Structures are given as structure tokens and as C-alpha cells.
Amino acid sequence: MLTRLHLFALSPFILVCATAVTVMLGIAWRRQHTVTALVSALGLNLALVALWLVWRTGEVPTLLLVFDNVAVFATLLILVSALACVTLSHAYLDGYPGPREEFYLLLLCAAAGAMVLVASRHLATVFFGLELLSMPLYGMLAYTYRDAHSLEAGIKYLILSAAASAFLLFGMALLYSQTGRLDFPGVAAGFAAGAWALAGAGLMLVGLGFKLSLVPFHLWTPDVYQGGPGPAIAFLATASKLAVFVVLMRLVMEIPAFRADWLPGLLAALAIVTMLAGNLLALLQSNLKRLLGYSSIAHFGYLLVALVVADGLALETAGVYLITYLVATLGAFGVVTLLSSPYSGDDASALHHYRGLFWHRPYLAAVLTITLLSLAGIPFTAGFIGKFYILMLGVEAERWWLVAAIIVGSVIGLYYYLRVMVTLYLVEPGMMRRDAPSDWGMHAGGLVVLGLALLVLLLGVYPAPMIDWMAGMTLFAG
Amino acid sequence: MELAFYLSGGVAVLATLGVITGTNPIHALMYLIVSLIAVAMVFFTLGAPFAAALEIIVYAGAIMVLFVFVVMILNLGEGAVAQERLWLQPRTWLGPSLLAAVLLVVLVASLVQGGAGQFISGEPISAQAVGGLLFGPWLLVVELAAMLLLAALVTASHIGRRPEVERWSESKGRRPGAGRGKGNGGGR
């Protein structure tokens, strides 16, 4: 039964949902783009305050959700990326001729879904959270639907995502048929090694692997990244992937079915293939959004190392890596979005749009450089700390194949990140189709991007607070 | 009852095979309806009459009939009559009818044998039990489903918006939201 304590622990989620409903009522009454964006930002900030209060209360397990350290940490990151996406979308949608307010409604719904997903300890909430996360994303990706690329992105994600959900449900059904329970502790207790339970866990891996775009299931990623509107992609690449990864981590660490028999080997193979293929395919790209898509595939390959090892420092490593990935990715997509703002047709994403960017938008070029350096894992940026943790974890667990794949992947990655950076500083004028407004730095979106770049540097130079925080990370036991 | 379960399950598998191998949407949908009814039968034999009734009312009844209607309406045209005649060939209706006949035999046989209320094992799950669960410990999931439907509805209404509405707002300049949003309810 829901008690007052449970309601209190749910308050960040309730606040986000209430904001979505408020935005909907506001749309029905009178359309006001700026007011809608402000209300959304206010709701997310209130949820952040509520989250802080929940965090001070400690762990609150309920039947369906558990509010432990990991859930609070992931919810914080989700709320922060949702806030960044709200500010970016305000700049982006300003030029959109159609209705603009629904985007915030969808964004808030997706954030609520992600928050449920990271706190779930029951297969039913896993499924509903995942659907609540994905369903608004279809709408966000296809939001500028008169642009054929955007519509294509939305429909592609919708159809492939539905197929992935079918895999996930079938896997859950197999696990249920073997254990008779749907909650994680029950499934973990009732697990007996057998072909069916393993097949169930494997099918669930396929379903979640699709959302994380691990390599055999990555085919949707480049097209969706290229076609979708900037703010939607920023949310997809950060909050959505983070939430799915956290729930996968919970499954792997809590349910023995995911660590039995040949499944760790499968995970390791997936990690190696994902790292190598993601980085190699990124080499061929001449479109910044596609390139970032492939780079996010590779980054989740690195993150899988934490799941393969799944003990010792794995949780801390995953936490640190998720923070560094999230901040850098938000910054990079923020710059792409700002350069394509206000909306007028296709986003500026081809590499030649960025040639010589430094010579007339020096600060934006600097932000993009810093975030790309961080994604490449160069020292003095946050990305280095994350990459260092992953390598250390691989070496400590003596997984030499994984370590080799990380090193090869990082070297290849360095090449294509540097290629983009060189483009930014070329002297010859590029074919700039689009440009950020000249006072971009004074707007909320610009401030967010600058703040993210500073955060990347700060976390790279002084990572101690982040590491201390992550060291105390524990999953709720029992 | 076990026999009824296995027969219905077999029918469900065969009908679903018919769905995914069918090349004509209408034929595939016929198989799908049979498959859903067979699944409902499986629920009955397992002692979940409420889920079975919902399966028939919601899936086989509402959603599938809607599918069939939409596909048929889209096909209207010159060749519609010829196509209808084509559909009446035994090859197309024999498969679904046979499977449905098997289901009918299962239903009649189990009615003759021992009447309603029989199932394989365990406690029957009544509508009251399902409702108590949904609005008790699973209340959160119901709310999640509500948010999910809201998001789906907003997405559908945004994508399905009539283009005239947008031209109207473009003609009002860059900030159509400033005035009374007459273009609000353009969703279909």
C-alpha cells in the first residue's frame, strides 16, 4: 500500500507529471511559447528540490519502485538534462512555424518515464517506464514532421522500438514462467539455471540493447540522430540512454539470471563489437550528428565493461562515466542546436557547415572543442576521468580483450574527433547555411552550453567531489 | 481442460503463423482475430475469465474490427468489387474458418463436459481481484499508463494536424501564440 512516505519519495515524479498536465491545460487555454518553457523549467527545478529532500531521507523501497542512491543519482542527471533540453528547445523552436508548446509536454512526459525506469525494481515498472520514455520520444523526433528527415527519424524509431519492446516482453514472460514472480528480488530468489531463464534474460538484453544501440541492434541510430530535431536528439542521447543503462545495470547486478552461464561472455562480446564497430563506422561520417551518434554507440560499448565486470568498482565506474558522458554530450548537441536555432528547415549538421566556425563564433567553437576533447578522453577534461576508470576496471578484472578493445577504440576515436576540431579552425570560410544569433551567449540556451563546457573542464581538473560522491553509490539490497 | 488448453494454444500458434505469412492485409487480419480469440480461450482454461473477456472485447472486438474497417475503407475504388469476389475464394477463407471451427469444437466440448467455471488448476482470478490489485498496490502503474496514453495522444494529435492550421498561424507572423490560439484544436 502507498503510505505518506512513499508519496513523499515519489514527489519528484509527481511534480514532473503535474507540470506536464499544467502545460497541457495551458495549451488548451492560451498558447504562449515562452511561458510554457518557463513553467516546464520551474516544474523541473521544483522536482530537483524535492529530489534533494528525498535524498536526505535515505532509501525508500516500495513494492514497484526503490529510491536508493543510484535512483536518486540517475534522477538528478535526468532532471538536469531535461532542464538543459528545455532551455535549448526554447531557442530552437522559436522559429518553428507550427505549434511549439507540445514539445515541452512530450519532454516532461519522457523525463517522467526515465525517472520511473531508473527507480524500478519490478518488471512491470521497467516496461511501463520504458514505454513512457519512448512514446513521447517518437513525437519529439518527428516534431518538425514537415521535414522528411524528422518524420523518417520518428517512424524509424517507432517501428524498431516496437520490435525491441516485443523482445523485452517475451524475455520477461520467459523469466516469469521460470520464477513465477515479477519483482526483482522474487525473480532473483526463484532463479534456477536453465535454458528458458537464460533465454529470457538474453531476450531482455536484446530489447534493452536496442535502446542503448549496442552494435548488432544499432542500425536505427545514425538516421535517427541525423533526422531528429536538435533538442530531441540531445534528450535521446543523454537522459534516455542513461535511464536504460541504469535499469540494465540493476538487472545485471540484482538478478543472477543475467550473470549465469554464457551471458557474461555474450555481454563481453557485445562490448567489444560495440566499441570497435561504433568507432570504425564513425570514421566514415561527414555529418556531425551522425558522427556523434556513432560516438555514443562506442561510449556505451565502454560502459558495458562495467556490466561485464559487475563487481568491485563497477558501480562507481559506471556512475563516473555516465556523468562525464552526459555533460560532454549535452554540450556537443547544445552547440549543434544553437547553430541550428531558430528553426528553419534541416539542422546545420554537415561538417562543412562547421568549417571555420572559430573565426566568427570563437566561444561556440571553443565549447564544441572542449566537449569533443572530453568525448575523446583527453586529460584535463571530464572524459579522461571516465575513460581512466573504465580502463582501471578492465585491468583489475584482468579482462585483457576488453582492455585492448578500449585502447584501440579510443585511438580510432581520437582521429575522428580531431578531424572535426581541425574543421572548426580552418581559415577558409565554410558553407555556413545557418548561424547562431549574434547574442547567443546572453540567452538561456547559450548560458547552459557555456556552463556545460566549464563543468567539463572543472570535472577534469578537480574530480574529487564527483569521485567521493560516486564511491558511496550502493544499490538497495533485498 | 488440458486438452482444451493445448488445442486452443495450437490454434493460436497456427493462426499467428498465418498472420505473419499472409501477404494480403485483410487475410492476415482474419487470422489475427482467430489468434486473439484462441488466446482468450487459453485464458479461460487457465482460470482468468476476466482477462479472457477483456481480450475478446478489447482486442478481437474493438481494435481488430477497427483495423479491418480502416483497411477496407482504404481499398475502396474501381477494383473493389473484383477484389471482394477474389476474397471469396475458398483458399482465402478456409484456413481461418477451420481454425475457428476447432475453437468452436473446444468451446462446445468443454460446455457439454462440465459447464462453465472449470479450469486447469489454482484459484480463479475474478474481475474484483484484478480491480483490487490495479487500484491497490499497482495504482502507480495505472497512473503511468495514463501518462503514456496522454503522451501518445499528444503525439498523434501533433503529427496528424491539418496543414491549413499551420498556414493560418504562419500568415499571422512569427508569433502565432500571442493571440487567442484559434489554431489550437487542429488535431484529428
Describe the fold and architecture.
The complex is a heterodimer of chains A (478) and B (188). Chain A is an all-alpha fold. Chain A contains 19 helices and two strands. Chain A has one domain (11-471). Chain A has a two-stranded antiparallel ribbon with strand order 1-2. Chain A has helices at residues 4-9, 11-29, 33-57, 69-93, 102-119, 123-141, 148-179, 184-189, 195-211, 221-227, 230-254, 263-282, 288-309, 314-339, 362-376, 382-396, 400-425, 444-461, 464-471, and strands at 60-61, 66-67. In chain A, α2 (11-29) packs antiparallel against α5, α7 crosses α10 and α14 (314-339) packs antiparallel against α18. Chain B is mainly α and 188 residues long. Chain B contains eight helices and no strands. Chain B has helices spanning 2-21, 25-46, 49-74, 80-87, 90-114, 127-134, 139-159, 163-171. In chain B, α1 packs antiparallel against α2 (25-46) and α1 (2-21) runs antiparallel to α5. Classes of the chains: A mainly alpha (478), B mainly alpha (188). The A-B interface holds A 1-2, 10, 17, 20-21, 24, 27-28, 30-33, 62-65, 95, 97-102, 105-106, 109-110, 112-113, 116, 124-125, 128-129, 131-132, 135-136, 138-139, 142-143, 145-146, 151, 154 and B 136-141, 143-145, 147-148, 150-152, 154-155, 157-159, 161, 166, 169-170, 174-178, 180-181, 183-184, 186.
